[in-house]
Write a structure and sequence with these properties.
- The protein contains nine helices and seven strands; from the N terminus they run H-E-H-E-H-E-H-E-H-E-H-E-H-H-H-E.
- It is of the alpha/beta class and 337 residues long.
- It folds into two domains: 72 residues, no CATH class; 247 residues, 3-Layer(aba) Sandwich (Rossmann fold), CATH 3.40.50.
- It has a seven-stranded parallel beta sheet with strand order 3-2-1-4-5-6-7, with helices on both faces.
- Helix 5 links the parallel strand 4 and strand 5.
- The protein is globular and about 65 Å long.
Length: 337
């Protein structure tokens, strides 16, 4: 018989579940009397109700805790640790930075937009855990200086999230300057940050790069952006291979359409008008939230993902599984027997 699940300290400043997302779906059954919040709280930043359960908890075993059930994501994986979030001033990077501070991790936000990064730090539930660094990842000197500053304070870096991106989208008309900028930030910047920061990461550390569904599909006038996201997905696999001997895992998340500042800009801020249009690209019929991608990143950083590396996790609401027929609204088939 398994011992009761370890009690996980409550996560600070957990917002209520957004009504527009519908009721939360629990990933697995628990035995009667188990408080789901003790298992899912470190993974989901939402307050879950305590429903009656049934069945048994399926524990995860590891060498450090052999024979003891371990929550899906243990807050102890993050408390007292140090992280760098590149591009943490907005969107997915900002949501990830805030989530990490809620879990007790010291977070250094690297961003070219320091005003936005300071706003993120001020809004964090534990703002004392956030520092902001003026960094353009395409500038090797500025990147190296920021990494040195973080290491002087923390002595080590346990987590790296590469979320910085240039959203230059051009095709036939892409200029040499367009290519230099998008490759400099998205590809060279991702490579440079991993090279610079991994030198200070102990065994058991983890890196998550942010790719995109655009790495896998054809989109009009998107040579620049799509090429760099495809490069990130492939580079992640090579980084994982080269860093495995040091005990460092590297994975990549590829989001679908997420309501970030860039998407809001494309919609001129009119979400009610454009979400029904863009939402049809996804099986779930809606756009994602930055916090939903941040949850996936937190999972990949945690020891719950200890046997996952060189893997692309699609956080796309089913976008990549949907055919050109969409949800089938205009599809018709003849049934024969």
């Amino acid at each position: 018989m398994f011992a009761p699940p370890k009690l996980v300290p409550p996560v600070l400043a957990r917002p209520s579940w957004p009504a527009r997302l519908g009721p939360p779906v629990l990933a697995r059954p628990c035995r009667a009397g188990t408080d789901y919040r003790l298992i899912f709280a470190p993974l989901l930043p939402y307050a879950l109700p305590r429903p009656p359960g049934r069945g048994t908890v399926t524990p995860r075993f590891d060498r450090q805790r052999k024979g003891q059930p371990v929550p899906i994501v243990d807050i102890q994986d993050f408390a007292g640790k140090s992280a760098v979030v590149v591009g943490g001033g907005s969107g997915i990077g900002a949501a990830t930075a805030v989530r990490l501070t809620e879990l007790g991790t010291s977070v250094a936000i690297f961003d070219i937009n320091t005003a936005a990064a300071m706003t993120v730090a001020d809004q964090a539930a534990r703002k004392e855990l956030c520092t902001v660094h003026d960094v353009d990842v395409s500038d090797a000197d500025r990147l190296a200086a920021a990494v040195s500053a973080v290491v002087r304070e923390t002595a080590r870096i346990d987590f790296l999230v590469n979320s910085a991106a240039s959203f230059i989208s051009a095709g036939l008309d892409a200029s040499p300057g367009d290519w230099d900028r998008v490759l400099g930030v998205n590809v060279k910047g991702c490579a440079a940050s991993v090279s610079a920061i991994s030198a200070h990461m102990p065994a058991g550390s983890a890196i998550v790069n942010v790719g995109s569904i655009s790495a896998h599909i054809a989109q009009p006038n998107r040579w620049t952006y799509n090429a760099t996201k495809a490069a990130i997905v492939e580079m992640t696999k090579c980084q994982a291979l080269d860093l495995a001997p040091r005990g460092v895992r590297v994975n990549v998340v590829s989001p679908g359409w997420i309501w970030t500042p860039e998407v809001s800009k494309a919609a001129a801020g009119d979400r009610p008008r454009w979400e029904p249009v863009w939402g049809k690209y996804h099986i779930l019929g809606r756009l994602g939230e930055p916090e939903e991608v941040a949850n996936a990143i937190i999972f990949l950083l945690s020891r719950a993902a200890s046997f996952i590396t060189a893997t692309e996790l699609m956080v796309d609401g089913g976008y990549s599984a949907l055919s050109a027929e969409g949800a089938g609204d205009a599809s018709r088939f003849a049934s024969t027997r």
